[in-house]
Amino acid sequence: MAEHKFSVWAPRPDRVRLDVGGALYPMTRTDDGWWHAVVDAAPDARYGFVVDDDPKVLPDPRSPRQPDGVHERSQLWRPTPEAWSDGGWKGRSIEGAVIYELHVGTFTTDGTFDSAIEKLEHLVDLGVDFVELMPVNAFGGTHGWGYDGVLWYAVHEPYGGPDALIRLIDACHARGLGLLIDAVFNHLGPSGNYLPKFGPYLSTGSNPWGESINIADADADPVRRYILDCALRWMRDFHADGLRLDAVHALVDTTAIHILEELSAETDALAAEVGRPLSLIAESDMNDPRLITPRGQGGLGMTAQWDDDIHHAIHAAVSGERQGYYGDFGTLEALAQTLRHGYFHAGTYSSFRHRRHGRPLDTSVIPATRLLAYTLTHDQVGNRAIGDRPSANLTPGQLAIKAALALGSPYTAMLFMGEEWASSSPFQFFSSHPEPELARATAEGRKREFAEHGWDADEIPDPQDPATFLRSKLDWDEVGTGDHARLLAFYRNLIALRRDESDLADPWLDHLGVDYDEDRRWFVMHRGALSIVCNLGEQPVDVPVGGDVVLAWGEPAIAADSTGLPGHSVAVVRRRG
Questions:
Q1: Is 258 annotated as a binding residue?
Q2: Annotated binding residue at 241?
Q3: CATH of the domain at 21
Q4: Where in the cell is it found (predicted)?
Q5: Mean pLDDT computed over every residue of the chain
């Protein structure tokens, strides 16, 4: 037992008492709305707060651990220096890297941090540079995507809790892999959100996922500090190499210094303190280059951002899908424009939004490495009605074309778990809300949403059915078989080329060239002396680019001034002279 100072920001209640192991202690309020108490407690003591006359013991908003779930008492926890062996890890920026996004619960059969460690050699052999974890903050239930977190400082216990997360990050660093954590600061989940009982954490506005976070209304300063401290904690206490920031367009900040700019400055200060690069990747659908413009040039200073336009342009061109937000894409002209300029919508009309969208990117100032290119993400598969991957609908050759365009591009690249071997497992939307009414509303809302878009409601998986979660787990037995093994080898070779060929390291879009034939369905992306030559059609074509084949899917026929490609195939060609 030792003295421990407990504190909580709670300007709303008239009285707050501290519960430690079932014993209640008074707390003293200061003028800034914080309550404090110094009490003898064990290093792993369970504790919580009792607000006014409500007997419910509430978890700490800054809870370091929730061993019994988000509705129960918190537990004291702090990392120990002995847990780490990564003193030699110098880190690296994500710019130009290859990132591997994964969901801990479905990446392996056991669905834990420790079982993920057993698969790290696969990622090393693949050649990726970073692992990006979908949210690992504490959320209601045993399994889910993690975007409905309510205790942002705590680590989801079914994954193994904070100690196991440390083991995973330490193991990544031992293998030369950086680790990024997906952080959600734009909304709170519906199960276990007790923050409004303490203070004005929520604003008067809303977004598609619920009430917005108060980052600009009255009493917003402590809420902003709550967000900033949480973000920095992942990188300082857990040694994460950066964060992916979910849907930052939903962070409505009307103050003169945007919270992302503030986070960028504090992240740079922490990076200087710990002596290694720390990266911030924003998810935004605004196509606003100010997000990735340095603070000194009037921007918000994010290291990079997800670029859905690149995904849409590649996927629609290869697959032929044109529904929903794919409506403006699908042509090779759209693919060429997007690859050359970073954004497709850049102050241009978006038929999906029924308005102008985006802002042009100055490609002479902003390098392509500040945008992420990908052909698959948790969103782009999981938010489909039945969670079907491209591998369920496309040929292996079409998947190889998509991989070559993303990994052969000058953008920072990202893969989604299992993509590299064309996993047959779907990635469906799943949840495990313990509250019956919430569980029913989630399932019915999902079916209703897709029924409105023409789907048979009976085909929509029930998010609350445990089978939906189990179906979404990767089947690692596929990896070494048939086309799965062949595609995996192609991905490995593409990533090795990206690493070893200086022409593929050029980050400037002004140096990228494209040629295409809309009718004959061939497309070429030129990167220095290398050309990624694609046949998106089913029939063989001769493409007017000759040279030596460096890597291919299919059996290209090379001539001095042309490359013959069978249907749905791709070749990386080194031009002569």
A1: no
A2: no
A3: 2.60.40.10
A4: Cytoplasm
A5: 96
